[in-house]
Amino acid sequence: MKVLVPVKRVVDYNVKVRVKADGTGVETANVKMSMNPFDEIACEEAVRLKEAGIVTEIVAVSIGPAQAQETLRTALAIGADRAILVETAAEVQPLAVAKILQAIAQAESPQLVILGKQAIDDDSNQTGQMLAALLGWPQATFASKVKIAEGNAEVTREVDGGLETLSIRLPAIVTTDLRLNEPRYVTLPNIMKAKKKQLDVTRPEALGVDVAPRLKTLKVEEPAKRKGGVMVKDVADLVAKLKNEAKVI
Amino acid sequence: MATLVIAEHDNAGLKGATLNAVSAAQNIGGPIHLLVAGSGCGAVAAAASTIPGIEKVRVVDAPHYAHPLAENLAALVVALAPGYSHILAPATTTGKNFMPRVAALLDVAQVSDIVAVIDADTFVRPIYAGNALATVQSADAVKVITVRSTGFDATAASGGSAAVETVQAAADAGMSRLLGQELTRSARPELTAARIIVSGGRGMGSGENFSILEALADRLGAAVGASRAAVDSGFVPNDYQVGQTGKVVAPELYIAVGISGAIQHLAGMKDSKVIVAINKDGEAPIFQIADYGLVGDLFQVVPELTARL
Predict the structure, then answer these.
(1) Which of residues 99-158 of A touch B (CB under 8 A)?
(2) The complex's ipTM?
(3) What is the dihedral of CA A12, B270, B258, B288, to 10 degrees?
(4) Neighbours of A69 (CB within 10 A)
(5) Span B16-38, pLDDT tens digits
(6) Is the Cβ of A226 closer than 8 Å to some Cβ of chain B?
(7) C-alpha span between B306 and B142 (Å, rounded)
(8) pLDDT tens for residues B124-133?
């Protein structure tokens, strides 16, 4: 069966983001960009399913500027078979991303779409669920374990109180949580191989999707800074401060 | 126009995060209706009707709502959506799961994890793990919103007397089913609802060593949390995790023990009222945001702290 893995190019998770002085967003010029970590886990899971003989083809998709090709090359180096870039310089919000992915899923007919549960830039946590709704497919979000058998996926999910396991009918959407797997390091031979793999480029208009944003960002600002406090000399001092100064115990 | 708040519950009792979502709805203004969808959830509906400021509780009781499966819950909310200008749910793993489905079916954007209401169309939400706050305005006819509990004080749980109305169930989508749950059982308060949290990091060294934190937590009536490093090291289960990828908490008192203070952990607890850091490394970044810092060996400091309380 075929698996679709959408991947997003985001500011690298190690970068300390800075809010732009004019309050229009965060600084992304000359900042290291990488694949969204949750999407890397999604790629890895797809590759493991292929190695287990369950999946036959992995198609990676990205939506974004021309540079998102680099992100797709990373997906190909992890083990995706081919890639599609939906190129646009515009800001594409989750609903529009889901509509683009819906168009691609309808053309590619995958049995499974594995996505990261959220992108670490906008922290929306929406795309997978929206795609499931648009396709009319079941979903299992925040997955920590995925088992495929007989037209169903058995997915263990990370929920607030612990874990729960769902059985969902295929085709379906799965979104990844951190503990699903640990992505492999891409090796140089695989990076070289990835360069030769097929990468098609299309545009949202060609898929008939209007990407006009629904939410307008009025401003972006830094949160109030927390002031460092005082060092206490010992436990007795700490207890006294918590009782008399902070009055929290 | 009215606001519909989707109650979170376990068919026996209402979850606390519902009260924070009601509080956000009050900031938006207009009448508030609460949807209780469950199976054998009469007691939850009765409890919900006593939340002050609610005009009406709408109850749907059917076997296929016993567990909040996204497919079924979203279809129900969409069926009930006409007449509402805002649909709100707590940004818990349940709300995050089904609400984007509702938004997509209504062809509207979702505003995730709001921490403030500016007006009926404008909201503040954290981005980049809370390192920036975005003020966003929605032009959609219906605003589908998830509410971060730490952004809004919980409203009172009793004192009101809302009408309770039974609503017809939507069809069972039959696409997914629950096979089982492994929920952490604990006599301590829930992390997201606790007034005091004692959290341990990699410095704890092992899962067994968490017993000294548990002793301190029990003395304080606190919940026990952990950093991602402690979870990744296998000391404690993932539902203990506080941080960008775990739970976001804002208790009155947060005691960070053996936690260095990685950005991703700070994202989950920096809105706590008072932060105490206990760490043997005086250079640990956690001390830069702590109100009270104590440099020392946690294996000596924590038991002493427990004994002095």
Answers:
(1) 120-134, 137-142, 144, 154, 157-158
(2) 0.95
(3) 90
(4) 17
(5) 999 999 999 999 999 999 999 99
(6) yes
(7) 51
(8) 999 998 899 9
pLDDT in the model for residue A205: 97
The values of phi and psi at residue B166, to 5°, are -90, 135
pTM (predicted TM-score): 0.94
Q: Own/partner pairs for B284-290, CB < 8 Å, 24+ apart? A: B284/B259, B284/B260, B285/B260, B285/B261, B286/B256, B286/B259, B286/B260, B286/B261, B287/A228, B287/A231, B287/B261, B288/A228, B288/B261, B289/A226, B289/A228, B289/B261, B290/A228, B290/A229, B290/B256
Query: How many CB atoms within 10 Å of residue A51?
Result: 10
Structure token digits, residue A127: 């795309």
Q: Is the pLDDT of residue B242 over 90?
A: yes
Strand-by-strand arrangement of the B110-114 sheet: B110-114, B143-147, B84-90, B2-6, B32-38, B56-61, B163-166
CB proximity B100 to A under 8 Å: yes
Q: Which residues of chain A have pLDDT under 70?
A: none
* Angstrom distance (rounded) from CA A127 to CA B244: 18
Nearest one of B24, B26, B10, B120 to B65, comparing CA atoms: B10
Please name the residue that has the structure tokens 């519950």.
B9
Amino acid at residue number B270: K
CB A25 within 8 A of CB A220: yes
Instruction: Provide the 10 A C-beta neighbour count for residue A90.
Output: 13
What distance in Å separates residue A143's CA from the closest CA in chain B? Answer: 12
